[in-house]
Specification:
homodimer, two-stranded antiparallel ribbon, 71% helix, Prenyl_diphosphate_synthase (chains A, B), isoprene biosynthesis (chains A, B), (2E,6E)-farnesyl diphosphate synthase activity (chains A, B), magnesium (chains A, B), transferase (chains A, B)
Chain lengths: 302, 302
């Protein structure tokens, strides 16, 4: 019998391969001047876990899906938004990070002006991809699906920025768990939720009833993801993380380990993953890919 | 008989009043944390000529238009994109401008981090507004119109960033008129074009034939606008402009007066305005508001 962690790796790996290809196809469709082009490829193609696209694919694969191309566009779009946020978060006026995924951050490699503009264009490129006919064999687009995806993605992108503001406001201050979770619901949770929902709206049937379950799953896995991130910032090395470890403590950032202690944070992460899995019960076997992604996320080392 | 300049002022003024109200309605619909909220209002509500919304309204009013609400959303969206670009262009790593519309720029008033995030969220807010039901009495949205508006706006936003990159690349270099026009076609022309096109797609009939004429008008008025901007940077005072005058020469920016001399640039601007008016002949009396906007743009002092 294949071990669970092996199966998990395969689902993630298949998603990573697909998104890597689709991102390449998408980026290659743009005609960008240098050095913007190199900065955009640098920011997008360095890898990363590609969790958001994987979640989008997993939802869109829960039943036979004639609109799967729209889910593929959404997976690219949500990853482009994520990448734009990384390029901007790393800027000197924000986190001033020098290392990302084991490589120099965008502004270190290309300068602040180009990194700013790379982030800016990645956001509009996300909406261009969403409204394009990329990956579509039939050359037809269901406008109502795209409209819903645009609403979902735009709202999540705005929330992400609000979360970033709340996070900056909280630096060096004592905040409680409710405030911390409000930050993360916006900063990382909203985009994870959006990845799921943009996949869900491509499905034909029954998703109206399913949406609340999926939304609950999204909230839990989004929060679990963040708690795990906070833990890894403490227990992992810079080498494993691919970004500067211990950074949170350095800037007196509010984190779950800081708030509740490392052991309690690890328990909390485990519980949130279990709760996320429980939210998937409604879907039965259709949720197998989502389950595997949850398993992977709990066991990840970076 | 009312003088032309008086009529012009009225068309622009009516558009400015409408957009000011609609922007307020739109911004008030968002729940933003401080200091982001103040930074966003500061960037958006200080005024400006509101040329892009005015062009969008003028096109959408060319015939009886049951989808006028979609044009109003587009007018707000295009102005939010324009405002995001201003907040980011003014940043220290870009033009490092301290004054905009007679007021401190966003980063001077709120800090670089907040100005960066204000620009970021203004971009996603633009797409949120586009996909919303704002201003809609019937509470119904034609998804295919919104999809086309999203495609137009996202493409123009990306082009704007490319134009900015080309502009930065050209600083301190000698470039010819073709290269200069390529910069401006992207940097300012694309968004002006988008304002017209997002208005056009809300119209029921005949716009397919009309589109090439409108596109030509957009190219000409977009270029005319930029040439006039370059001229005003030289002949106007900082007080009249509301931003630092003489800035272009200071940073050795390629401009039309630098390329062809001030007199020739003024002639060129006049010719472009005339050509823009000629592109409107196709529309007859329906283009009266667009004609008046052109007249106003040629006579503007800031």
């Amino acid at each position: 019998m294949t071990s669970i962690s092996h199966v998990n790796a395969n689902v993630l790996q298949a998603a990573q391969e697909r998104i890597q290809q689709d991102l390449t196809t998408a980026l290659d469709a743009f005609d960008l001047p240098e050095p913007l082009k190199s900065a955009v490829y640098h920011t997008v193609m360095l890898g990363g876990k590609r969790v958001r696209p994987a979640l989008c694919y997993a939802v869109a694969s829960m039943e036979k899906n004639p609109n799967y191309a729209a889910a593929r566009r959404a997976a690219v779009a949500v990853e482009l938004i994520h990448c734009y946020s990384l390029a901007h978060d790393d800027l000197p006026c924000m986190d001033n990070d020098l290392l990302r995924r084991g490589q120099p951050t965008c502004h270190v490699a290309f300068g602040e002006d180009t990194a700013l503009l790379a982030g800016d264009i990645l956001q509009s490129m996300a909406f261009e991809v969403l409204g394009s006919r990329l990956f579509d064999q039939q050359n037809s687009v269901d406008a109502s699906i795209v409209l819903r995806q645009m609403q979902i993605l735009a709202t999540a992108s705005s929330k992400m920025v609000c979360g970033q503001v709340l996070d900056l406001q909280a630096e060096g201050k004592e905040i409680d768990q409710e405030q911390l979770e409000n930050i993360h619901r916006n900063k990382t949770g909203a985009l994870i939720q959006a990845a799921l929902m943009m996949g869900a709206v491509t499905l034909f049937s029954g998703m109206d009833q399913a949406i609340p379950h999926l939304r609950q799953f999204g909230q839990r896995i989004g929060l679990a993801f963040q708690v795990q991130d906070d833990i890894l910032d403490i227990i992992s090395s810079t080498e494993t993380l691919g970004k500067t470890a211990g950074k949170d403590q350095q800037v007196q950032k509010s984190t779950y380990p800081a708030l509740m202690g490392l052991d309690a944070a690890q328990n909390y992460a485990k519980n949130l993953h279990d709760q996320a899995l429980a939210s998937l019960d409604y879907f039965g076997d259709a949720a197998i890919e989502l389950q595997q992604i949850v398993q992977f996320l709990l066991s990840r080392k970076s």
